[in-house]
Amino acid sequence: MSDSSMSDWKSIEVFGLAKAEKQAWLLGQLNRLTRHHQAHCQPYANLLAGQGQQEGAAESLNAVPYVAARLFKMLRLSSTLPDNVFKTLTSSGTTSQVKSQIFLDRDTAALQSKVLVSLLSSFTGKARRPMLIVDHDGLTGDKAGFSARGAGVQGLSFLGRDHTYALNSDMTPNWPVIDDFMAKYANEPVLIFGFTFMVWQHFIQPLIASGRSNQLPQALLFHSGGWKKLQDQAVSNDTFKTTVRQALGEQVAIHNFYGMVEQIGSVFVECEQGHLHAPTYADVLIRDQETLAEQCEGEIGLIQVLSFIPTSYPGHSILTEDLGRLLGEDNCLCGRKGRYFEVLGRLPKTEVRGCSDVF
Ligand SMILES: [Zn+2]
């Protein structure tokens, strides 16, 4: 497949390609990106040389070279000129940790937004819904140190209208605003977005405690972010869903999604069967955490994520520090094509190892 296919992504159904077709398309995109980043990012070229990889001509998805996620914390990995950097994203985390830095130029940022909207609107429909954001206003202002949270909110805001922030800056519910939104849109499809723990802790729990229930029965909730804090409270995905439906309405659609600041735009959305799905534009592989060999379906290992989007930084193939398991491909009962998987948590810090050690 030729390099000109980059503009073709819009003509491909988000979850419509079966294995052979998808791999042919995605592999062409990933090889193009490998060559591009080798030519434009010296540390990346060094990394590939260290692995004995020169060509950018992988013959299968599992042969596409990958960068360990933590390298984005250690190196300035940029394939664009400093003057072209339009926004720098930083990973969330405590201030004592070194954060990932992701350099976006206008083209990559624009493609991220377009792909994200195309992907998520396959769940919400084309019409922009009134949108309740479970966060406080003031996350998206600072261009220099744009946080993952701010980027997530801004990325999803394109799906909605009448954007309403549900929280005060101290994370307490802004009840007058919430009550207005609920009164205004009680009989309409609305969109709710927030980070998983914040939705649970700062929205759903206060709603239940205050006696409000069943006030947004046509809502669709997208939520993302780690499960660790909820696991600490012994809240499973099933408990989360059941409780959200008790609070908002029995028919509320709830979709978790998995994604990372290193690959904004490529997210893996949970379907009605509770499976995270790779869209046509992205994929996942599972690798053994010791040998880094590709794992079979059902085996636990590190999640590698592939995306056709990033041109301004070498993030098209990343080995994450998250553990997961491939559940199947092209045969989920929801009808979507592609691989589906589950995320099982994060590798403890001390166990992180892998290809970056060639540095
Ligand atoms: Zn499914």
SSE order and pairing:
Elements: H1 19-40, H2 42-50, E1 67-68, H3 71-74, E2 87-90, E3 101-104, H4 106-124, E4 129-134, E5 146-147, H5 148-157, E6 160-165, H6 175-184, E7 190-195, H7 196-209, E8 219-224, H8 228-232, H9 237-248, E9 253-258, E10 268-270, E11 276-277, E12 282-287, E13 300-307, E14 317-329, E15 339-346
Parallel strand pairs: 1-14, 2-5, 4-6, 4-7, 7-8, 8-9
Antiparallel strand pairs: 2-3, 9-10, 10-11, 11-15, 12-13, 13-14, 14-15
This protein binds zinc ion.
Could you characterize the architecture of this molecule?
This protein is α/β, with parallel strands linked by helices. It folds into two domains: about 15-75 and about 280-359, Luciferase, Domain 3 (Luciferase, domain 3), CATH 2.30.38; about 110-260, Rossmann fold, CATH 3.40.50. Helix content is about 30%, strand content about 25%. The chain is built from nine helices and 15 strands. It has helices at about 20-40, 40-50, 70-75, 105-125, 150-155, 175-185, 195-210, 230, 235-250, and strands at about 65-70, 85-90, 100-105, 130-135, 145, 160-165, 190-195, 220-225, 255-260, 270, 275, 280-285, 300-305, 315-330, 340-345. Strands 1, 4, 6, 7, 8, 9, 10, 11, 12, 13, 14 and 15 form a twelve-stranded mixed β-sheet that branches. Strands 3-2-5 form a three-stranded mixed β-sheet. Helix 1 packs across helix 2 (about 40-50) and helix 7 (about 195-210) packs across helix 9. It is globular, with a radius of gyration of 20 Å. The protein starts with 18 loop residues before the first helix and ends in a 13-residue tail after the last strand. Bound molecules: zinc ion (ZN). Zinc ion (ZN) binds near residues 271, 273, 332, 334 and 336. InterPro entries: ANL_N_sf (IPR042099), LuxE (IPR007534). This is Acyl-protein synthetase LuxE domain-containing protein.
